[in-house]
C-alpha cells in the first residue's frame, strides 16, 4: 500500500511546524560549526561523532516531513460496508458518514480518521492509524537529537580541550556563548516536552487506548485482553522486524487487516 499525501490547510499548524523546522535548522547549522567541526579538526572528537549527529538530524527531519504529509487514515466518502460488518460501524454525528468504531472526527481536518489519537499542530496533521508510527519516530529522534545537542553544549565548556584555532572575524565565533545558550535553552524545553509526550504515547499503545479515548473515558473495549507490548508496537509500525521500527524511509504494511481496511485500500 503506497503512502498517500495528506495536506492540511491550517495557518496555525504551519506556524507551529515552521517553528520546529527553525529550531532544527538552528542546531543543524550552528552546532557543527561551533562544536563538531572545530573539535574534529583538532582531534578532540572522532568522525563518528559528527556522522551520528547528522544521521540523527536526518532521521528527525525525515520523520517530521513524512508524519506531516502522510495520510493518517482518512475514511473514503462512500465506503462499501458488508451487511455482516454493520455492527462494527457507526454514524458520525458531525459529517453524517459511516465510520468504523474507534474512529474520530477531526474538526481541523474536516473528516473522520481511523483510530485517531489526536490532532498535532506541530506536524499540522492528525495522528491516526496510518501515520502513528511516523509520529513515534519523530518523538524518538527529537529526544535523541536534543539530548545529543545538550551533551555537546556541556562538553564544549566543561570537558573538551580549549580550541587552539579560532577565527574571531566570523560571526559564529564572536557570538559563540549566546548561540550555545540559545541551543541549550531550546534543547531543554523540547526534550522535556517531547519526553513526556513520548511516554504517554507508549503507554497508550501498550494499553491499546488512544488519547481521545483516555480523555473521554468512553472506550467500549476497556475489558479487551491486554496484548504483549511487542505485538502492539509491531501492529503500529507494521512489521515484526524491530530494526525497521527505527527507519522512516519505508512504507508501512498493516499486520492486521481489520474489517474496514479492505474497502479503504
TrEMBL record:
Enzyme Commission code: 2.3.1.225
Top-level taxon of origin: Eukaryota
Reactions mediated catalytically: L-cysteinyl-[protein] + hexadecanoyl-CoA = S-hexadecanoyl-L-cysteinyl-[protein] + CoA
Cellular component, GO annotation: endoplasmic reticulum; Golgi apparatus; membrane
Stored InterPro entries: Palmitoyltrfase_DHHC, PFA4/ZDH16/20/ERF2-like
Keyword annotations from UniProtKB, A to Z: Acyltransferase, Membrane, Transferase, Transmembrane, Transmembrane helix
Keyword rRNA-binding on entry: no
Subcellular location per the Swiss-Prot or TrEMBL entry: Membrane
Keyword Acyltransferase set for record: yes
Ranges annotated as spanning the membrane: 12-31, 43-65, 138-159, 179-199
BP-aspect Gene Ontology terms: protein targeting to membrane
Molecular function (Gene Ontology), one example: protein-cysteine S-palmitoyltransferase activity
Enzyme class: transferase
Record's bilayer topology term: Multi-pass membrane protein
Location of the Palmitoyltransferase DHHC domain: 89-216
Family to which this protein belongs: Belongs to the DHHC palmitoyltransferase family.
UniProt note: domains: The DHHC domain is required for palmitoyltransferase activity.
Protein name according to UniProt: Palmitoyltransferase
